[in-house]
Amino acid sequence: MFNILDNVDYILALLDKDCKAHYRYITTGTSGSYQLAYGFLKPLVVEETFTQNRYLTCDNAILYSNNDLKYALEKCINQSNADYSKMVSNLEKTVNYIRETSKNNLKELLDNKEGSFYA
Prior knowledge:
It is a single chain. By secondary structure, the protein is mainly alpha-helical. The protein has one domain (2-113). 48% of the residues lie in helices and 8% in strands. The protein contains four helices and three strands. The termini are far apart. The relative contact order is 0.13.
């Protein structure tokens, strides 16, 4: 699977806001699609409802609304190489921000516990 991901340009999340089983991805759940997009620096194609608290914007992902996947796929097909490269660069900046935020949160948590792991 990872070899295939190295050779794709986009990752399709295919989450449906009208599907009750997908509702958890709007609230507290996460999808492997997000993790793969971040890890492989591949822009995610996702319905905009699922971008809340994910740091995904039209600058680093292909977003669509009202289940208009056709629009999103057309945008992927017609995107210039320069625009694609900029989107990937923006995604990389997002990943770096998430990484730094996560490290800082962990450091703060550990600093506030002051050795409680060893007590």
